[in-house]
C-alpha cells in the first residue's frame, strides 16, 4: 500500500518508510492512498476473538509487505502483553445504551499505550532487519513521554530521550518517566516550559548533520502507525455491541485529533459507525470550527484535562484533506494561512463534508467536575477528567443506537482533579502501587541546544 502526503508534494512511501519518516518532507501528514475495506462477514467474524487477533486482522492490509504474518503477530503479542486487563480495551456500561471503552489498562494508564507499545515493536523489528539504530527524541507535557519510555525501554536498537519541563509535570507522570532502570532510557528535566522542550526538539530535527549522526526519529501523534493502531478498538467495541448488524456511535475526548481520526478510518473500512462525536474542553478550536466554519487559533487555557489543552490540532489536517476531496494544494494553502494569519475559513463544501462525518460538543471545567461526581454516584465508575469531558458530550448526543465513549486515561493519573470532584483520591492499580517507592533516574539540563546535543551523543548506548 502507498502512502501520500496531505500537501501533495512529498514522495509516496510504503508503510515502513512512512512510519520511520513521520512528518512528510512537504510538511504534510501521510495517509493511505486507498482505504482497504473489510466485508460484513469479516467484521462479524471478529466477534469473540482476542484483541490481538482483531488487531492482526484489522491492521494487516495496511502493513503491506513490511513483514511476514507470523512476525506481525509476534509484534502485536509483545505490544499488548504488558496490559493489566486480558480484554485490553474492556467495555463497561454507564447507562442504558451508553458504554465506556476503558482504554487505560496499558503500562502508563492512558490510551496512548495502544499505539506506542505497538510502534515500539515495529521500530525494533525494522531496525534489526536494517542492522541500524535510531535515537528517539521527544518533548512531553506528560502522557506521551511516559508512553514512549514504556514502549521503548530495553529495546536494543533504540535509545529514547524524553524532554519534560522540570517541575511542571504531575508526580505520577514524572515517576513514570524517571523510574525505568534500562540503560537506553534517558529522562531529561529541562529548565524551561513545555514550549521550550518542543522548540529544542524542533531545533535538533532542523540540524541535519546532528539528525543524521544520531539517527534522530520522532514518534509524535502525527505518525501514521500510531493512528492505525488506534483503529482496532473501534472494531472490537462496535462488534461487542452488535456491529456489523447494528450501527454504533462513538464520542472521543479530543486534542490532536489522532484518536477520532482513527474512528473515521474504521468507518471508511466498513465498520457501521453512526455518529463520531468530537468532545473538547474549553480549548474548543475543533468544536468552533464545526459550528462556525472558521478554523481559528486562540490562546491555550489550562484545564483539569491537560492532555486536551491544545491551540492547534495537528491531525485535523488529515480530516481537511478528506473534506477537500484530497486536494493537497488546497490543504497546503490553508496551512499557510493558519500559520500567517492564525486561522482560515473552511469552504462550504468542505464544511458540509466535515459535518457529515463529525458531530461535536464542549464541556466546561464545572461540567467536567460535575460529570465525574455524577457518574461516580450513579454507577461507581470513576472517570478521569478527559473521559468525563467525553461522557458529558456523549450524553448530549444519545440516540437509539449504542453510544461508546472512549475513556482515555485512568483516574489515578489525575488524582487531584478526581479528588476535588468526588472527595476520594483514586488509587493506582496494584501492579503500579510501588511507583512512589521506585528509585528515580533523571538528568537536569539547561535550556541550551548545544549542551543537549552533546548529552545525547554521549549517552547513546552505542
Ligand atoms: C492524548 C490524549 C487525548 C487526546 O487525544 P488526541 O488523539 O490527541 O485527540 C485525550 N485524553 C488523554 C488522556 C490523552 O492522553
UniProtKB/TrEMBL annotation:
InterPro entries: Thr_synth_N, Thr_synth_N_sf, Thr_synthase-like, Threonine_Synthase, TrpB-like_PALP, TrpB-like_PALP_sf. It comes from Tranquillimonas rosea. Its EC number is 4.2.3.1. PANTHER family: THREONINE SYNTHASE FAMILY MEMBER, THREONINE SYNTHASE-LIKE 2. Its cofactor is pyridoxal 5'-phosphate. SUPFAM superfamilies: Tryptophan synthase beta subunit-like PLP-dependent enzymes. Residues 102-331 form the Tryptophan synthase beta chain-like PALP domain. The keyword Ligase does not apply. Residues 2-80 form the Threonine synthase N-terminal domain. Keywords: Lyase, Pyridoxal phosphate. The keyword Manganese does not apply. Belongs to the threonine synthase family. GO terms for biological process: threonine biosynthetic process. One of its GO terms (molecular function) is threonine synthase activity. This is Threonine synthase. The modification N6-(pyridoxal phosphate)lysine is found at residue 112. Pfam families: PALP, THR4_C, Thr_synth_N. It is an enzyme of class 4 (lyase). Gene3D superfamilies: 3.40.50.1100, Threonine synthase, N-terminal domain.
Amino acid at each position: 500500500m502507498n502512502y501520500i502526503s496531505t500537501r501533495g508534494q512529498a514522495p509516496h512511501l510504503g508503510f515502513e518508510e512512512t512510519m520511520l519518516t513521520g512528518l512528510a518532507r512537504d510538511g504534510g501528514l501521510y495517509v493511505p492512498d486507498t482505504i482497504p475495506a473489510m466485508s460484513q462477514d469479516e467484521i462479524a467474524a471478529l466477534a469473540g476473538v482476542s484483541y490481538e487477533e482483531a488487531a492482526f486482522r484489522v491492521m494487516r492490509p495496511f502493513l503491506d509487505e513490511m513483514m511476514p504474518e507470523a512476525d506481525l503477530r509476534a509484534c502485536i503479542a509483545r505490544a499488548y502483553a504488558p496490559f493489566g486487563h486480558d480484554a485490553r480495551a474492556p467495555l463497561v456500561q454507564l447507562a442504558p445504551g451508553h458504554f465506556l471503552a476503558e482504554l487505560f489498562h496499558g503500562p502508563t494508564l492512558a490510551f496512548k499505550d495502544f499505539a506506542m507499545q505497538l510502534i515500539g515493536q515495529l521500530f525494533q523489528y525494522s531496525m534489526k532487519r536494517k542492522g541500524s539504530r535510531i535515537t528517539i527524541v521527544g518533548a512531553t507535557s506528560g502522557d506521551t513521554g511516559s508512553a514512549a519510555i514504556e514502549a521503548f525501554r530495553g529495546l536494543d536498537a533504540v535509545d529514547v530521550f524524553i524532554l519534560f519541563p522540570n517541575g511542571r509535570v504531575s508526580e505520577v507522570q514524572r515517576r513514570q518517566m524517571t523510574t525505568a532502570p534500562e540503560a537506553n532510557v534517558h529522562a531529561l528535566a529541562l529548565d524551561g516550559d513545555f514550549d521550550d522542550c518542543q522548540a529544542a526538539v524542533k531545533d535538533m530535527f532542523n540540524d541535519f548533520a546532528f539528525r543524521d549522526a544520531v539517527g534522530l526519529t520522532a514518534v509524535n501523534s502525527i505518525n501514521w502507525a500510531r493512528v492505525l493502531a488506534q483503529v482496532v478498538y473501534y472494531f472490537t467495541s462496535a462488534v461487542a455491541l452488535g456491529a456489523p448488524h447494528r450501527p454504533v456511535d462513538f464520542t472521543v475526548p479530543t486534542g490532536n485529533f489522532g484518536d477520532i481520526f482513527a474512528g473515521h478510518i474504521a468507518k471508511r473500512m466498513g465498520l457501521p459507525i453512526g455518529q463520531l462525536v468530537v468532545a473538547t474542553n474549553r480549548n474548543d478550536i475543533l468544536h468552533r470550527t464545526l459550528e462556525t466554519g472558521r478554523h481559528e487559533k486562540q490562546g491555550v487555557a489550562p484545564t483539569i484535562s491537560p492532555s486536551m489543552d491544545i491551540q492547534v490540532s495537528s491531525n485535523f489536517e488529515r480530516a481537511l484533506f478528506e473534506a477537500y476531496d484530497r486536494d493537497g494544494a488546497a490543504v497546503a494553502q490553508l496551512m499557510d494561512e493558519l500559520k500567517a494569519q492564525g486561522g482560515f475559513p473552511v469552504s462550504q463544501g468542505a464544511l458540509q463534508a466535515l459535518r457529515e462525518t463529525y458531530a461535536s460538543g464542549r464541556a466546561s471545567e464545572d461540567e467536567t467536575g460535575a460529570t465525574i461526581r455524577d457518574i461516580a454516584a450513579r454507577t461507581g465508575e470513576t472517570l478521569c477528567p478527559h473521559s468525563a469531558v467525553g461522557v458529558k458530550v456523549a450524553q448530549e448526543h444519545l440516540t437509539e443506537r449504542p453510544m461508546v465513549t472512549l475513556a482515555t486515561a485512568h483516574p489515578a493519573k489525575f488524582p487531584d482533579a478526581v479528588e476535588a470532584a468526588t472527595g476520594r483520591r483514586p488509587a493506582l492499580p496494584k501492579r503500579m502501587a510501588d511507583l512512589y517507592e521506585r528509585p528515580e533516574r533523571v538528568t537536569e539540563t539547561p535550556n541550551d541546544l548545544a549542551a543537549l546535543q552533546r548529552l545525547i551523543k554521549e549517552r547513546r548506548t552505542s
